[in-house]
Amino acid sequence: MQREGVRRDFLKGVIVAITLGSLGLRRALAAPPLGLSPEEKKQLKEELQRELERKVYSVDEELYRKINKARNPLRFEGHERSHVPKITAPTKVRSLEVFTVKIEVGVEDIHEMQPFHYIDWIALRVDDVQVSYATVTPLFNRPVITFEMTLEKSANLVAQEHCNLHGTWESDTFSIEVVKTS
Ligand SMILES: [Fe+2]
């Protein structure tokens, strides 16, 4: 059922790109050059289809070359909405008490997990040290992870994630105060 949805979404993307005519493929796909054998027509169609997929789902190189953050954590824009990880956790815990940290990608919209566009890992850093890491897979996972944690002293948490097209994104710092138990 979900695969059907994925396929439908992908075809929708292809149709949009063809309709826009951005690659001029509509004519080529609809009317292949005359004189081609059925096998050559099939190969041409597959080649054009691959070209179209590359254009529709292309890596954003600028985002790929750095760790991206929200420019203004109070107002998310563009890719920030579905890529900046969101941390949910208690702001105060007891020393060595078990608590849960939930990380969602992203803050306003959950990022899609389609075969051509997906989150592949989510990580948690505590005071600049990576302490937790999880891989997620399109078709099987949502980009939402929970980690069971303990802290001995107050710490700053930062979540990171990686999108196959839009690179690495980092959350704002989430501070947790640790209260000593008597
Ligand atoms: Fe993305």
Q: What is the 3D shape?
A: elongated
Strand content: 25-35%
Query: In CATH terms, what is the architecture of the largest domain?
Result: Sandwich
Counting structural domains, the number is 2
Number of strands: 10
Please identify the top-level CATH class of the largest domain: Mainly Beta
Bound molecules: fe (ii) ion
Sheet with the most strands? 7 strands, mixed
**Coarse structural class:** alpha+beta
CATH-defined topology of the largest domain: Immunoglobulin-like
Which regions contain 5 or more consecutive residues with pLDDT less than 50?
13-22
Tell me the helix content. Answer: 25-40%
> Kindly, what is the distance between the CA atoms of the first and last residues, rounded to a whole number of angstroms?
54 Å
Question: How large, in whole angstroms, is the Cα Rg?
Answer: 22 Å
Number of helices, where a helix is a run of at least 4 consecutive DSSP H or I residues = 5
Report the CATH superfamily of the largest domain.
SOR catalytic domain
Give the overall average pLDDT: 86
Helix-strand topology string? HHHHEHEEEEEEEEE
Mind sketching the topology for me?
Elements: H1 2-20, H2 25-30, H3 38-56, H4 61-64, E1 67-68, H5 80-83, E2 85-88, E3 92-94, E4 99-105, E5 119-126, E6 129-135, E7 144-149, E8 155-163, E9 167-170, E10 174-179
Parallel strand pairs: 1-9, 3-10
Antiparallel strand pairs: 2-4, 4-7, 5-6, 5-8, 8-9, 8-10
Helix pairs in contact: 1-3
